[in-house]
Amino acid sequence: MVDLTRIKNRRAKIIDQEKYRKSAVLVPLVNYQDEECLLFEVRSQTLNIQPGEICFPGGGVEPTDKNEEETAVRETCEELGLSTSEIEVIGPLDILITPFQFMITPFAARLDDYHKITLNKSEVESVFYVPVDFFLNNPPETYLTKVTISPQPDFPAHLLPNGKTYNWRAGSYPVHFYQYKDHTIWGITARIVENFVKIIKQT
Questions:
Q1: Residue from 180, 169, 195 nearest 37 by CA
Q2: CA-to-CA distance for 157 and 151, rounded, in angstroms?
Q3: Helix (H, G, I), strand (E, B) or coil at 157
Q4: d(CA 203, CA 197)
């Protein structure tokens, strides 16, 4: 008889989770000009990936990181020149999984000494602040992108019903946009902001 004891009382995981590219970001809250604000980075123009785009501090999980929270804090310290004692992690937001096997874990945190920020110019061009009230009062604009499956030439289509004419399903992926002054906050960063807003509105 097959031993099924390992299934009993186990916690479900995401299939092939270990193959996902894991990263973590910090969603920094600061009191800027007497307003509760979120801090955003503008990525350096010298970066090979997404130069000049808007993001939160963060990056890929390293083998030496104990967990995703440590990743988010470490990356924030590297990018903003802060020490761990100057970052107060409040808690996790919801995990975002993209169609491209990225798994991103965001953490809300407070930066009480944000005026001590010293930018790592190799990664961060500048930072700016957006009042939380702006996001509470202005939902994002959402546009859909099409996600399709395109088998590689060596794919064994002959094993499928209808062979090469198999009717692959297509899906859509929402892309959010916030426009604040001359800053366009979009994509994954905007998805994380929207999730942050949903969570704080529930409390």
A1: 180
A2: 9
A3: helix
A4: 10
In the CATH hierarchy, which fold is given to the domain comprising 18-137+181-202? Nucleoside Triphosphate Pyrophosphohydrolase (3.90.79)
Mean pLDDT, range 80-93, rounded to an integer? 96
Q: What tokens does 85 get? A: 């004692």
C-alpha of 88 from chain center:
19
* Exposed/middle/buried for residue 191 (C-beta within 10 Å: 0-12, 13-18, 19+): buried
Amino acid at 163: G
d(CA 134, CA 130): 7
Q: Report the SS3 class of residue 35.
A: strand
- pLDDT tens digits, one per residue of 33-47: 999 999 999 999 888
**CA–CA dist 96, 153 (Å, integer):** 31
Rg (CA), the chain: 20
3-state secondary structure of 79: helix
User: Which residue, 64, 69, 63, 44, is CA-closest to 54?
Assistant: 44
Cβ-in-10-Å burial (0-12, 13-18, 19+) of 4 comes to exposed
Q: pLDDT by residue (tens digit) across 146-200?
A: 999 999 999 999 999 999 899 999 999 999 999 999 999 999 999 999 999 999 9
Residue 12 DSSP class: P
Place of tokens 């997404």: 50
